[in-house]
Every structure is written in structure tokens, then in C-alpha cells.
From TrEMBL:
The gene is RBP2. Keywords: Transport. It holds the Pfam family Lipocalin. InterPro entries: Calycin, Fatty_acid-bd, ILBP, Lipocln_cytosolic_FA-bd_dom. GO terms for cellular component: cytosol. Residues 7-24 form the Cytosolic fatty-acid binding proteins domain. Gene3D superfamilies: 2.40.128.20. This is Retinol binding protein 2. It comes from the Eukaryota. One of its GO terms (molecular function) is lipid binding. Belongs to the calycin superfamily. Fatty-acid binding protein (FABP) family. GO terms for biological process: retinoid metabolic process; triglyceride biosynthetic process.
Length: 135
């Protein structure tokens, strides 16, 4: 049985977000604002179907997907690209590979206790974020 990602998760740490945004080609002004934001993730999981909302005072990002089904993702409000995304299970980890202009792009989600980990990769940059489950 895969991990249960359901819930509201509040950001605790955000390591190397600046480097990750530079690798994506995000402009200086947006990076300056974005690196100071505390994000909240709302995840609704129904088996292999996920509805994820990433919320902040600056921008929100919605992502709906089914594990194992490739889809076209418009990263509107992020780096405004179109990528082909595929999310798969690796044990209890969700692993997403995003094919597009940038190499080595994707993310991994996993849970340890009441902490949700998100590892974002692009080119040679890795950003590690942690979120604590809100009661």
C-alpha cells in the first residue's frame, strides 16, 4: 500500500531554491520574491489519483495527475514551459520525470513521520523542501 499523502502541509525548510530557480531560467525579480515565500501544499490522494495545490501569497499552482499516466504539464506561473510529465511510484516515493527544454528535470515526494519531503531537480541543481503536516 503506497503512502498516504492526503492533508495540508506547511513549509518548514527550503534549501537551494535560488539555485533551482536559476537553473529553470526564472528572472531575478521573481526569484527575489519567491525565495521568501512560505508555501502550503494541499494534497488530495485517491489511490493513484492526486490533486495538489501549492499555495503562497505570490502565486498558486494546481497539479492533477494519475500515477503511471504521462501528461502535458503547463508550468504556468513557475517557468511557463510545457513539459511531458510522468509520475511513478518508487516504493513509497512519488517520482516525476519532466521532459522538455531543461535536462534532468523533475521531483520526488516522500513522507517520513509527519514530514513531507520534496526534492526538485533541474540541470545540476537540487532543491530540498520539507513540509510539516497541519493538524
Amino acid at each position: 500500500m503506497p503512502a498516504n499523502y492526503n492533508g495540508t502541509w506547511e513549509m518548514v525548510t527550503n534549501e537551494n531554491f535560488e539555485g533551482y530557480m536559476v537553473a529553470l531560467g526564472i528572472d531575478f525579480a521573481t526569484r527575489k520574491i519567491a525565495k521568501h515565500l512560505k508555501q502550503t501544499k494541499e494534497i488530495v490522494q485517491n489511490g493513484d489519483n492526486f490533486k495538489t495545490k501549492t499555495l503562497s501569497t505570490f502565486r498558486n499552482y494546481d497539479l492533477d495527475y494519475t500515477v503511471g499516466v504521462e501528461f502535458e504539464e503547463h508550468t504556468k506561473g513557475l517557468d511557463n514551459r510545457v513539459v511531458k510529465s510522468l509520475v511513478t511510484w518508487d516504493g513509497d516515493k512519488l517520482v516525476c520525470v519532466q521532459k522538455g527544454e531543461k535536462n534532468n528535470r523533475g521531483w520526488k515526494h516522500w513522507i517520513e513521520g509527519d514530514i513531507l519531503h520534496l526534492e526538485l531537480t533541474c540541470e545540476d541543481q537540487v532543491c530540498h523542501q520539507t513540509f510539516k503536516k497541519k493538524n
